[in-house]
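Supplementary Methods S3. Input chains for the assembly prediction are listed below.
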Amino acid sequence: MNFDEHKPIYLQIADLICEKILNDAYREDERVPSIRDMGSLLGVNPNTVMRSFEYLKTIEVIYDKRGVGFFVTPGAKTVVKSIFKQSFLNEELPLIVKKVKLLDIETEVLCNHIREGLKAG
Amino acid sequence: MNFDEHKPIYLQIADLICEKILNDAYREDERVPSIRDMGSLLGVNPNTVMRSFEYLKTIEVIYDKRGVGFFVTPGAKTVVKSIFKQSFLNEELPLIVKKVKLLDIETEVLCNHIREGLKAG
Amino acid sequence: MNFDEHKPIYLQIADLICEKILNDAYREDERVPSIRDMGSLLGVNPNTVMRSFEYLKTIEVIYDKRGVGFFVTPGAKTVVKSIFKQSFLNEELPLIVKKVKLLDIETEVLCNHIREGLKAG
Amino acid sequence: MNFDEHKPIYLQIADLICEKILNDAYREDERVPSIRDMGSLLGVNPNTVMRSFEYLKTIEVIYDKRGVGFFVTPGAKTVVKSIFKQSFLNEELPLIVKKVKLLDIETEVLCNHIREGLKAG
DNA sequence: GTGGTCTAGACCACC
DNA sequence: GTGGTCTAGACCACA
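Predicted structure tokens for the full assembly:
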């Protein structure tokens, strides 16, 4: 898998997993792949995957059963969604608006771009 | 000043300066603040400011007169605008669209947010 | 049952059994629950219970009759008590004292806590 | 430095630093030794020290200035003390009391031990 | 098999 | 110089 150069891989893996949870690819109380499997799957060192999992554990998106594996925390989907939504609307969106204004991008042009992107993807 | 945790400070300073240029706060052939002033203003090491300026020099947004200071390159505003626009439309926008989709944010709700933001700010 | 995060489960189970012996809940030459029962009771893998029992066997707190089960060793209560007492006085107490000092907890306040705890429980 | 066998080194280092803060060995907004220095000082790998610092950062006992080092968070002493005190009184003490009861240790004998320990250390 | 810790060492970006 | 990330590989405890 290809990772973005300028963001730590372990955070990108965390994002990946959050996405899968939002996508219902990983459901609540379901086991996520083992650190080793994930590592070889993504072509990264297990330690790096471990860091992702550690991080996700601290934000309570996953929990672990010792000797068994990591599992999606019940309620994680809702929580992740709301956190992401909050941060998007309160932090990212204002920056986007600011940029749009600065760059003199026409609102309706932008909205059309978004609409098309949503249809397409 | 507060900087984003996960982005080099020198790039954030560069962004800041570009913004000012787009804002007409710094006009062409006008002098930008000295490295020293900028540093103490932002609470960062002058070396860090220096890196920003070097970076801006390589992308030809500013130029320097030795012993005098740094100045905005003529035409910088147009160039910066087009660079930013490109990167916004090609790189940021797709990510935004992806996120919006993932978070089940209604397109029209989003567009309204943007419209309002533009009116307000 | 909930286990402490940072101590092996099998040792915590061993502690549990020692407690029962000190409590006279399990008496000498009496059978302790089967590995299977203990496992489902505590919600842990039978292998983990097995390890506890093995450990207790090596320190001669229990012994096994093959095909029958595990039994409390005669004299175990005395032995366990003295082991625990030693380790409490020599290892735990100094740490407690150190902590109390570090946290500026008044000696008499602490002693009162202990006295009350003993009366209550 | 010697570490306890059965507790992760990185947590022991974290404890060490908390102690120093409680001791006023490290004061608020004061810099703690660099990861590398700490590593060679304690005879552990810098990565291990890093984990300690990471942990202490998440619980907001220290903060970092990029490229400069780690510093004690203002208010850390008070916070650490109160957290430690709470956990001692609510979690550890009941266990101690339980053990004391189980082992038939005389309250006054115990209290004397504590008093002496406090005088001595 | 699982996760967890640790080491060694490299390389990077940043100050 | 600082912290941060990543790899490789070892070893351990645990289920």
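Chain C touches chain D through 32 residues (CB under 8 Å). The first strand of chain C starts at residue 62 and ends at 65.
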